Amino acid sequence: MSQNFDVVVIGAGPGGYVAAIRAAQLGLSTACIEKESRLGGTCLRVGCIPSKALLESSERYIEARDHLQEHGVQTKGVTLDLAAMLARKDSIVQGLTDGVAHLLKKNGVARFSGHGALKGRGEDGMYSVAIAGEAGEDTITAKNVILATGSRVADLPGVERSGDRIGGSTEALSYPDVPKHLVVIGAGVIGLELGSVWARLGSKVTVLEYSDRCLPMMDAAIGREAKKIFKRQGLTLKFGVRVTGASVKGKKCTVEAEGHEPITCDRVLVAVGRAPYTDGLGLETVGIETDDRGRIPVDDHLQTSSPGIFAIGDVVKGAMLAHKAEEEGIAVAERLATGWGHVDYDAIPNVIYTDPEIATVGKTSAELKDAGVPIKEGSFPFRANGRARALGQTDGLVKIIAHAETDRVLGVHMIGPRVGELIVEAAMAMSFGASSEDIARVCHAHPTLHEVVKEAALAVDGRAIHM
Ligand code: FAD
Ligand code: NAD
Predict the structure, then answer these.
(1) Which residues fall within 8 angstroms of residue 22, CB to CB, at 6 or more apart?
(2) pLDDT per residue as tens digits for the range 193-215
(3) How do the residues of the chain divide into helix, strand and coil, expressed in percent and rounded to 5?
(4) Do 107 and 14 share a domain, yes or no?
(5) Mutate to test the pocket of ligand 1, among 43, 49, 348 (most ligand atoms within 8 A of CB)
(6) Ligand 1 centroid to 44 CA: how many Å?
(7) Does the C-beta of 128 come closer than 6 Å to ligand 1?
């Protein structure tokens, strides 16, 4: 196998493997280095996919136990087989990670197993990359390098992560039994998703959040609705609580927070964010310095301070989302092959897969007001939608924010059934520069949940029909 490449990608998460496939599709000789035996990164191994598998399974459990009777379907003796649920999740992960290996091979990407590290630039302008694998060290060279090394769980000072009793999301995807009392530190995305899973499976779940509201990064209307719904579902959410420590004694954990009594529980999930991962990457050999948050600084074309070295995904600024990493990977590969490559950062959707789901794209009302942008808004609730009633899932709403003068859609925020799918309609409309009138004029099939999006668009001009 050749040891000289047009592009070497370090990291095979959704950013890295997608960049490698696109570069190879465009005719560039491409290598991809991954230190874990399974490809797919955080997302496929210990993130998006296993968490969604558990969310789905735990929803089915609750549906069978508590809700099928509403449909006239009688169920008796519904019990939980946690081992089977975890095994299903693991087999989904295995299938998808095997699939990535197959895709790399099919597209002619050379795969290297081991830890990749930059080793400076030669006089010929080629970068050297060392790979420390099981069989020893290898060195390959490349004109261009794409750094896609992702992120890891962020630590909280004073909280001793023991891996078992006090851990992060990876541990919470595989607890061997249902904790009687689970304390979650952080009411962000992971806290709410994995907190919901274990609450459905029978844990008492207490979520401790530093900020004074639920989902502080989301539109306030959605945060308020989410708080109401999660409380009703039995999650104990405590706001304005700054956790300062957590420790383990035997099988019990104690969590300490400023101005609060210590809480004793069985397990602790630390979900206070993720930190960029650049350990042992050899950035110093090419003169790259990380910023104050450990991220690799990049310009508008995702190029680092070292020409020909690019960085994408969780290791750079911006949302830590798999599809954002993928878009950046494609943009860099296309730019290298064609001179053009672009990411529309204003139209990146963000979905939280709780029940109901939460989904947003674009700016919040507060962000637009702070920026002095004149806006008008329309909202429509799922309870007035026929399909939502047939599903028996009527909680939530869709809110559309448009420019007050041009009517261009600037933000769409949703909480409700399957809004993770509905948000794509809004992202597409925003990518095409649509107005709320444009969305309202599109014929939406009946009865569908999408009609709530249409009605919210009509509501922007005060002319919703079914409310
Ligand atoms: P990663 O996926 O982290 O991949 C980086 C890869 O690089 C890893 O495989 C790592 O082993 C490898 N690597 C690192 N350093 C080296 C090195 N020196 N040499 C070789 N290999 C190296 N996002 C969503 O969009 N939707 C979701 O539903 C979602 N759910 C999530 C649930 C959880 C529990 C978590 C933790 C995250 C979730 N995310 C979700 C976030 C998502 O996983 C990340 O945004 C995404 O994986 C980032 O992709 P990436 O390619 O930048 O990095
Ligand atoms: P997050 O940033 O979503 O939430 C962390 C929360 O912890 C914040 O609300 C913060 O105020 C709180 N916090 C911080 N310090 C605290 C303290 N001392 N005491 C109490 N609360 C404290 O982070 P996360 O939930 O860990 O998720 C990490 C990343 O993974 C997110 O950025 C997200 O983009 C990504 N992710 C995405 C999805 C998805 O797309 N569905 C799912 C999971 C994770």
Answers:
(1) 329, 330, 333, 334
(2) 999 999 999 999 999 999 988 88
(3) 35, 25, 40
(4) yes
(5) 43
(6) 8
(7) no
